Amino acid sequence: MVTTKYRIDKMDCDAEEQLVRLALAELAGVTVGNVDLVERSVVVEHAGDESVVTTALDALDLGALVIETTPTTDRLERRSEEPTERRVLVVALVINAAFFLGEMVAGVLSRSMGLVADSLDMLADASVYGLSLLAVGGTMARKKRLAAGSGYLQFGLAVVGIAEVARRFVTSEGLPEFRTMIVVSSLALIGNAVTLVILRRARSPEAHFQASWIFTANDIKVNALVIIAAIVVATSGSAVPDLIAGAAIFVIVANGARRILALAR
Questions:
Q1: Which of 59, 125, 150, 202 could form a disulfide with 15 if both were Cys (CB 3.0 to 4.6 A apart)?
Q2: Beta carbons within 8 Å of 101's beta carbon, 6+ residues apart
């Protein structure tokens, strides 16, 4: 057995870590060890053919690069889904699903494409956490069906969203309610921060606590983008900043859907 350490440049949030773990979970003779979001690295033990692992990681398009491969000295133990970890994933799923519903309703009522897009970003993360939970004990065929269904749904919604943004660029829909955008996005930001801290503290109360604030996750950046767009809408009297923010987030959601579909393959 040998151990290979990978650097994964685009793995900077817990949802992307879950994607990496899911991609490697069912590879024969492969054990996933430490995943470090600070170094953006993952340690994998395998029988010697690292190309199988590399292919699975490359499919996610997260920028996987081999750092080093060494003979295994201490065997890695395959991570078990402990009750505490399952509870944490359930909490993350519930928070993201709740904010998906809340932001979607608020986005429609306030005519904000930024909020609608942000809600789909929440749905994307909720589906990743849900897949992580449902994958435990399930067959490979079932896991692939679940991943494919989630990926196609998100990709379809993102395409519809981009089309709606294009339509609103052409027609006049009036200004979105910027106050609602700021309040709801701020609440979503807080929800993402709480999820982040819960996930990191559950794994290690001390080791990654500071790291969780260095890499505050893409979702928090998305929330901040919607808040900035709302401020620009308020000061400029134009809906264009909201449409630009919405289009950018829909592209992010579509890219995330593509990664989930890579798991299904």
A1: 125
A2: 119
How far is 27 from 25, CA to CA, in rounded Å? Answer: 6
Confidence of residue 215 (pLDDT cuts 50, 70, 90): very low
| pTM of the entire predicted model | 0.69
Between CA 129 and CA 213 the distance in angstroms is: 20
Residues 92 and 54 grouped into a single domain: no
DSSP H or E segment with residue 175: none
- The residue assigned the tokens 């399952």 is 86
Same domain, 57 and 87: no
Do 17 and 88 have their domain in common? no
d(CA 199, CA 209): 10
What is the domain count for the chain? 2
Range of the domain at 151: 83-264
Whether 243 and 163 map to the same domain: the answer is yes
- How would you class 253 by CB atoms within 10 Å of its CB: exposed for 0-12, middle for 13-18, buried for 19 or more? buried
78 inside domain? no
Instruction: Please report the pLDDT score of residue 212 as a whole number.
Output: 42
Helices 113-134 and 14-25: angle between axes, nearest 10 degrees: 40
Q: Which of 41-55, 128-142, 243-257 has the lowest mean pLDDT?
A: 128-142
- For 249, the token pair is 């987030």
